[in-house]
Design goal:
Helix 1 packs antiparallel against helix 2. This protein has a single domain, classed as Alpha/Beta hydrolase fold, catalytic domain (Rossmann fold), CATH 3.40.50.1820. The protein has an eight-stranded mixed β-sheet, with helices on both faces. Strand 7, helix 8 and strand 8 form a beta-alpha-beta unit. It has ten helices and eight strands. It starts with 8 loop residues before the first helix and ends with a helix.
């Protein structure tokens, strides 16, 4: 008698459909930031999390964030995530998968939008990050987070914003957030040290400005918190020298720093790998969680 495989067919069909959707998602992640974000958000469920959307932190329409938190958190680390997009595009809505991923790890997470260029140039988007951190710190206990257990994380242009906001002493001072409350900075494929005048992103900086005036690697304070710099081995958007120069500047100032180049990943897939279904792509999520766990207040 031949074996009856009929009971296995639905499971096999689901497996094939899931693999097909995942393959499509990976193709989108490799080719399009918008496509990758749309795919990742579609496969991300926030069931069981506390989510508060469109929390205002300032007067502009883009001064909003979404907050993701585990249920029954107590004294949890608080993470502010800042999106990329060459300072000219992107928003919090495209990064639901980051908020969910960090909240599932046990962290209260704010995913922010900020004012965009060319209408808004440096330092407006850095000031937005500082205002968002101030608000998130003030509201942390409402979600079970600790106001003195803060981490700031950004991808691409958001990595610049994160590093500049924390490392340049003027920005936290301007919103009365003590740097001692920030336990760590996580930069993911950030452009911390480049001559923007040679790129289209020049529209995000004031006319006549120079790299010495705006680049985070020129502004490192000696009392900055530890940094984790994640770079993608196959990044064709942000040159490797950005992370190398930032690491050098942090070390020169006596700031603890780790630079890790993640194999096989590109500029988009390095952040896509924060999505829990796509952790097999690379080590982004594991490295972020490890860093937070090592640096958090216990």
């Amino acid at each position: 008698m031949s074996p009856d495989h009929s009971s296995r067919r639905p499971a096999a069909r689901r497996l094939l459909l899931g693999a097909g959707a995942l393959a499509l998602g990976l193709s989108l992640a490799a080719c399009s930031q918008d496509g990758a974000q749309g795919f990742l958000n579609n496969v991300t469920s926030t069931a069981g999390l506390k989510v508060q959307s469109n929390v205002s932190y300032g007067p502009d329409a883009r001064n909003v964030m979404d907050i993701y938190a585990p249920q029954n958190a107590q004294g949890a680390p608080v993470v502010l995530f800042i999106h990329g997009g060459s300072w000219q595009g992107g928003d919090k809505d495209g990064h639901k998968f980051v908020g969910e991923s960090l909240a599932r790890a046990g962290y209260v997470t704010g995913v922010m939008s900020y004012r965009l260029a060319p209408q808004n140039v440096y330092p407006s988007y850095v000031q937005d990050a500082a205002q968002a951190l101030k608000m998130l710190r003030a509201e942390a206990s409402t979600f079970g987070g600790s106001p003195d257990n803060l981490f700031v994380m950004g991808h691409s242009a958001g990595g610049f914003n994160a590093a500049e906001m924390v490392d340049n002493a003027r920005w936290l001072a301007g919103v009365n957030v003590p740097v001692s409350s920030v336990r760590g900075v996580i930069g993911v494929a950030g452009p911390y040290s480049f001559d923007f005048r040679a790129f289209q992103s020049a529209v995000a900086f004031p006319a006549g400005a120079t790299p010495d005036e705006v680049m985070p690697d020129r502004h490192v304070r000696a009392d900055a918190p530890p940094h984790l710099l994640l770079a993608a081995q196959n990044d064709n958007t942000v040159g490797a020298y950005n992370a190398v120069n930032m690491e050098r500047a942090l070390r020169a100032a006596g700031v603890p720093v780790e630079l890790k180049v993640l194999p096989r990943l590109g500029h988009i897939t390095i952040i896509a790998a924060m999505s829990r279904p796509l952790t097999f792509l690379g080590d982004t999520r594991a490295q972020v969680i490890r860093f937070i766990e090592e640096r958090r207040l216990k």
